[in-house]
Amino acid sequence: MKRLQQYTATARICAKGVFDGGLLSVAGEYLVRFLQLILLVQIWRSFGESSVLPDGMSLPVLLTYTLMASVFRQQLDIITPATSALWEGSITGRYLRPCPVLGGLAAETIGRWWIPVFLFYSVPVLLISPLLGISPLPASAWNLVFFLISLALSASLGFALDFIYASMAIRMKNGCWAAQMVREALTQLFTGALIPFAMLPGWAGQLLSWLPTGSIASAPLSIYVGGAGSSPLYLIGLQLFWNAVLWPISLWIFHKSEERMISYGG
Amino acid sequence: MEDRSINNQTENTAGEIRYGKEKGWFFTLMRLYGTYAKLDLLWFLRDTKYCLLYMVTDVICALAAMAGVLLLSVQFGGFGGMSRNEILFMLSYGIFVDGIFNLFFTGENMGNISRVIGRGQLDHWMIQPVPVWIQMATCGFCPFSGSSKLVCGIIMTVYSLYGLPVAVTPWWVFSFLAGTAASTAVILAFVYIVSCLAFVSPAAAEEIAPTAHSPFDMLKSYPLGGLSAFWKTCFCTVAPVGLAAWLPSLSLLEKAPGMFGPLPVLTIVMAAVYMAAAGMLFKKGMNYYGKYGCPRYSGFGHR
């Protein structure tokens, strides 16, 4: 219970600090995200008009998928402050706090990104989505239930992968920014957050859906829209499998890497 | 975008600059390009492992950015009014533009000018006996560490041209180079226009340049031909991601022929407009900076 209070307090402090730098520091990011949504929606519409969409992927389904990918972007693309703190030298401060480092980083992520983005980006976008001609509703009530379970597993898997990336960054020392850049570049494609796997060539979509990254965005979003292909139980089972495999690896690699941690600050 | 400024320390001395001044600004410009090239080479030689790491990273990021759109075009045999090969050319054009940007504006946060403004580092330029514009034009030059994307762009462009019925004449090559230079100018000017907010709000807008640059990273890979005229106009004027690859590629592929054949005239005109606006706003910002300074110079110290 005490631990939960510590995490809640950390998340609350981080959430309050989001606008410390002023509205500009976050509004630009929200605007870019919205522009990306608009562009993708327009492009999918042009696909729909030319009737080239693959079987089982209608235009409304595709638009809802893209909308929800944008709305839940933070939960489907977990980036904790681990790597940036290592780069900035502020990682040492995390070791002085009276709570576990990994738990603290997760609480910071929830406070700094999940809460403000949900309140100031996700909710407004969900509210205006009917004006854009996109339905934000799930395929059915069951799909919503399965989606929430899948989203929780996706976030859990995202944290595990992030700590593995952070471990790589620790080992790359001054090159940790390179690890971050590669990770950001690959994430959008490999998770299915930007382009649904059903829109890719069959072999590529199938291959990406089996990877752990495929369980991060593609699985919950496919469940939400009730897309053709795999059943919710199969996708959730796959997510459970990757969680069971990657969490022990993540914890082991991170704790081994901590012994090599060097941070110059910069 | 990473902050590589720590690896590039200026080594201008008063003696060198006085010598440059006597010979004119062009000589100073070339001399500083030479100096920054030397500094970049020294980083490469001193810290080869990390330098190569960043170079490889740039290539991976470039290829990853184009992979999604390329796979879409493979699946549907092209889209957005472009064939598969035409999309490949457009993506290569985009990487070439990124390559030019990296080559000239990676170092010293020149591509992320809001950081320089917000941190109060403009003062460092003002005390140098060289015009500010010459320093701005030269100090981002990284011909070694910043060249990997450009090399990748050249290879991809040549490869993509093999599958296209394009007559590669000297005029076409000139048009291509003019188009890529104009696209780079649009991106740079857009980033600088947005970054001018850092003059009036240094803390809030210090990191706004990467945010201003990110639409180009994320959206320029998409062919916009399927969009309505309204959205096409938006993406070629207010949010000019279409000028970074799509519109000039159409001209070069002669799908939007103009008076000058493949020359992307509209992109060049828009680049001139954007550069003029950026120059005007930056000058206004400098005047504001001269009057009020930067609050980063406070009791808390500065970077």
From TrEMBL, chain A:
Keyword terms: Membrane, Transmembrane, Transmembrane helix
Signal peptide from the UniProt entry: none
InterPro entries reported for this sequence: ABC-2_transporter-like
Presence of keyword Transmembrane helix: yes
Segments traversing the membrane: 113-132, 144-165, 185-204, 233-254
Superkingdom in the source lineage: Bacteria
Any matching Pfam family: ABC2_membrane_6
Name of the protein in its database record: ABC-2 type transport system permease protein
Automatic annotation (TrEMBL), chain B:
Membrane-spanning intervals of the chain: 52-74, 86-105, 151-173, 185-205, 226-247, 259-282
Pfam family, one: ABC2_membrane_6
UniProt keywords, alphabetically: Membrane, Transmembrane, Transmembrane helix
Protein name: ABC-2 type transport system permease protein
Organism: Murimonas intestini
